[in-house]
Amino acid sequence: MFALHSQAIDTQLLRLALAHASAGAVVVFEGVVRNHNDGRAVRGLRYEAYAELALAEGARIVDAVRLRHQVAALICVHRVGTLQVGEIAVWVGVAAAHRDAAFVACREVIDAIKLQVPIWKHEDYADGSNEWLHPL
Amino acid sequence: MRVTVRYFASLRDQAQCEVEHVIAAGDAAALYEALRARHGFSLPRERLRVARNGEFTSWDTALVDGDEIVFIPPVSGG
Question: What is the pTM of this model?
Fold first, then answer.
């Protein structure tokens, strides 16, 4: 399951959704807004998504990883809108029979999401400047 | 033909609009180059992907009347 949330991510609720009797391992990754990027002090940021394609592409990634590693449950939620330092920007949770598959699946999802899903970060800096991040 | 173009992130800022309806001819690559000349987009086409009607497509896909085109700048989610 892949979703975009415009409000704070409820990690307890998502963690409950991973519950699965066959799962002996749960791995969770939380991507958090930090107060610096590339040597600049960050005050806050905003995420924007091309929602239709982001949802389709995110679901495609999650489904592919879930099938490849035969995990019991896989959930990824990405924030859109304005976020403060310390807020969770992206949450990935995996439940699997054993830890190896859970760790690998979690890593593959977050790496693919960052590279392929049409979501963009706009950072506000402490010096008053701001910019869209379009990494090379 | 007439197509709808939606803009996101820096492209929207530079186009100063979220959506526009344009008369286009040829493929998506030609459309981006024409709009880049009009709006002064800083990103070269080589750094973008393009979507047609909600799905990624190739730059040489022929456009069809009524298409919705989105140019995808390098993404920065996560």
Answer: 0.95
